[in-house]
Amino acid sequence: MKHFTFDSYRRTFHSDSRMQLLRARTYVQLAVRSRRRFSAHCIESAMSEHDGAPLSTDSFNVKSKEASWVHYRHEDGLDDYRWTTKECHRILEDRPWEEVLKFYARVAAGKLSLSDLNFYWNSDYADSVETACLKDLAASIDVPRELEDSSIPSKVLKGGKWDRRTFKILLAYDGSAFMGWQKQNGLHTIQGLLEQALGKFCDGKRITSLKSEGFDVDAAVVVAGRTDRGVHAVGQVCSFYTWRSDVCSDDVREHINLLEPKALRAISVDEVPRTFHPNFSAKWRHYLYILPLQDNYLHDTCEVESQNADSKNVVKPKMIDASSINEMLSYLEGKQLSFTIFARDTKASRSRGPPTECFIYHARAAIAELPNMEQGSKQRSQVLCIELVANRFLRKMVRVLVATSIREAAAGASHDILVRLTEASCRRASAPPAPACGLCLTEVGYNDLSYSNLLIKTTVNS
Question: Domains, the chain, ranges and CATH?
Answer without folding.
Answer: 6-67 (no CATH), 79-146+282-453 (3.30.70.660), 165-272 (3.30.70.580)
